[in-house]
Design brief:
Blueprint (H helix, E strand, L loop, with lengths): L4 H21 L11 H29 L2 H23 L16 H23 L11 H25 L8 E2 L2 E2 L1 H23 L5 H23 L6 H63 L3 E6 L4 E4 L1 H7 L3 H4 L13 H12 L4 E9 L5 E12 L5 E10 L1 H23 L3 E5 L5 E4 L3 H4 L4 H4 L13 H12 L5 E8 L5 E11 L4 E8 L1 H47 L4 H27 L8 E3 L1 H16 L3 E6 L7 E3 L1 H17 L5 E12 L1 H6 L6 E10 L29 H11 L3 E7 L3 E9 L8 H8 L7 E5 L3 H13 L3 E5 L2 H10 L5 E5 L8 H11 L4 E6 L3 H6 L9 E3 L4 H13 L1
Parallel strand pairs: 14-16, 20-21, 20-22, 22-23, 23-24
Antiparallel strand pairs: 1-2, 3-4, 3-7, 5-6, 6-7, 8-9, 8-12, 10-11, 11-12, 13-15, 16-17, 17-19, 18-19
Helix pairs in contact: 1-7, 2-3, 2-8, 3-4, 3-5, 4-5, 4-6, 4-7, 6-7, 7-8, 16-17, 17-21, 18-19, 19-21, 24-25
Length: about 900
Amino acid sequence: MPATRGDRRMALVVVCVSAVLFAIAVPFAGVPLPPMPAFVASYQSALAINDLITTVLLFSQFAITRSRALLLLASGYLFTAMAAIVHALTFPGLFAPGGLLGAGAQTTVWLYMVWHGVFPLLVLGYALLKATDNDRMRGSAGTAVVTSIVAVGAMMAAFTWIVTAQHDRLPILLGGGHYTPVMLGVVSTVWCLSLAALAVLWLRRPHFVLDVWLMVVMSAWLFDVALSAILNVARFDVGFYLGRIYGLCAASFVLTVLLIDNVGLQGKLARLLGTSRREIDSERNLRTERERLFSAVVESSNDAIITKLLDGTISGWNGAAERLFGFTATEAVGKSIDLIVPPDRRAEIGDMLERVGRGERIEQYETSRVCKDGRAVDVSLSISPIRSASGQIIGASKIARDITESRRTEQALSQEMEERRRIFESSNDLILVSDSVGNLIQVSPSVIDILGYQPSEMVGHNAINFIHPDDLEHTRKEMRAGRRGRSKRNFETRYVSKDGKSVTLNWTGTWSEPVRRHFFIGRDLTEKQAAEAQLRHAQKMDAVGQLTGGVAHDFNNILTVITGTIGILEEAVAGQPQLAAVAKLIDEAADRGANLTKHLLAFARKQPLQPREIDVNALVLEAAKLLHPTLGEHIEITPLLAEDAWTALADPNQLTTAVLNLAINARDAMPNGGKLAFETSNVFLDENYADLHNEVAPGHYVMIAVSDTGSGIPPALLERVFEPFFTTKEVGRGTGLGLSMVFGFVKQSGGHVKIYSEEGHGTSVKIYLPRATGLDQTADEAQVAADVEGGSETVLVVEDDALVRRYVITQIESLGYTTLAAANASDALRIIDDGPAIDLLFTDVIMPGTMNGRQLVDEALKRRPDLKTLYTSGYTENAIVHHGRLDSGVLLLAKPYRKSELARMIRLALAS
């Protein structure tokens, strides 16, 4: 223990008092006193007992601290105890006149010097060793103590033999009762050893309590040696007696400190033991209460709690286990755990017990167990090792939870979620989920086809970013109404697609208060509105046709009267030039009216036709000859006629008139000159094309196309070009009946007419007339149509018309290809830059926006030089190439086309 200031102060007081007493006794040191042998015997006995007790206490502390320094100090006290006993036995006149053990006259004097010289040496060793790296001893403390006792005993025996048996050979230290000069030298050496021990103890810090009182001992030791061996004159004088008193007191200091320390430690130990007993009693009571509560918890648990040994023997079985498995605790405890394990699951028991035996915990292990009645139950197991007080694993604790019902519920929920996910992903309608302020949480994949966005491009954004601005307030009102309690609403709202087009959606919406979400299902009305518009257009055209037909019929009756009487009038006024000129004007007006009614009847499909088989190539060539002088030199006419063109069933005069009308319109669209192409080919319009044009009957047609490089027609006017009296020409340059006559003639002939036009590029009008033979598809043609070769490559389809795009994607995917879709060139380049593998770019030639199909291909090839390309267009291939829009040799699939033609061209493009 470190010395305190109080320890140092007490030791200093003792040393000061001793020094004062020493100073007082110095003048009287040589005063002779009566010999008292009993004093010597008492002093030596007390000293020996004192030092032996000190030795035992120091050896005890050494056994705890293993300090080499303490071992040396204990050996020093053991040596002084042995020396005191031998000194008493050999002292003359005490037990025998000359002393025992064969003592001589110098024996006790030399023993005193050895005794007072060896002890300081061992104290010096203690001071040098304490609190150093070499102080702690390894090995057995008992062996060290026994070795020390034996060594001290042997050393004491050797010294005793020398001073007794060999005392005659030793120098004389005491002669005639007085000290000799040799004595003064020896005693001075002994005194200096004590002084050196004191000095080293002082210098070796830190000081322990033992160090402080050892310094007090060495101070008293110095006074002892000085009084009894230096300042006194002979035995039994004042110095002789006082020196031994000092020595006895010095030996008592350390013993007193050790005894006080031990008493203090014992008191502290007693207090600790009392506290420990109280804590143990409290812990025992707490453990008993805890075990009682634990037992109550185990028994009241809804989970089965089972304990078992590492060999699988059941050692514990709570009430929940009885209820779950049907076995009582009496029936289960002591049995193997195989009692509740199905035969096909018993292999896992050994594995789990082995893992638990290694200290592993098993959490949430799902398996099945069998009940007493043979019923199987699904359980979730949590298994932990059970350890003994020594930490050894002696068993396993298992908690089994019945998850049969929860697993059924989970499976049902999983199935329901999967069904909902499938409905969500496969729905053709647009499904949106938003929060209370309109932020989109979920968007169905159908948004790709309906609005052109990827779901990820809409999720996280507010719906107002996609709703048409004019419909925002209406939509907000519907959402507010949903939150006010109207659980289900039906309303229409326009959304803006990625390519900027307005898409009308019919919404069914509902609000869920528990999750605070809006759920909307939007049906795309584009196709419905297109069909309705087409129906309205057909109804309008039919109504206009009926009107014009009726007007033309009645007007024809009037014209019949006029033309029938005009001849009579002309004869009557033949001699009157002025009236004859008026009659002629009336006749010319009647002819013009007759032509007008003829056109009106053609549009109304009520003109009398005389259909017959005609060679369309010959008719087109004859029309071209007639047109050369009419069109002028600045128009280049190019006939591109199919050598194997079929004959058509139509009225040749009306067909000639239709071709001429189309050529005249083309001329008017090219005031500065251009190219005019006449083309014929054989075409089969299939069911897919007929689905897109409900007035078309699937079958074989002869196609006659008239294409120009003129100014084109704006998209907004294309739907009206076939209406009677509608024209884009200047006033006075046309009646507006040319295209309407063509439309009526083709429809009355059972055919189909389609116009393609792009502003700044030109116009192509295609007339489809029924094949004259009326035969079905030939065997060779059927073989060609049936010989459809698909593939597994990826095709990027670029088409601005949503209906056509959806139709094309359906056809291509039916051939086995993977498709990607884009509404314009910028979307297509974005898909190409995103990095998916693309084998073929299938693009329309003319598209809205800043980039057409040709420019798109150029940009795409810069990014992917190996990309294959295929064009499609409503223009004929010859018209496209000759108009200079595509390079010669590029692949173009003209609309409309069969599935077999699509398959053939895709394979041709991929192999090119």
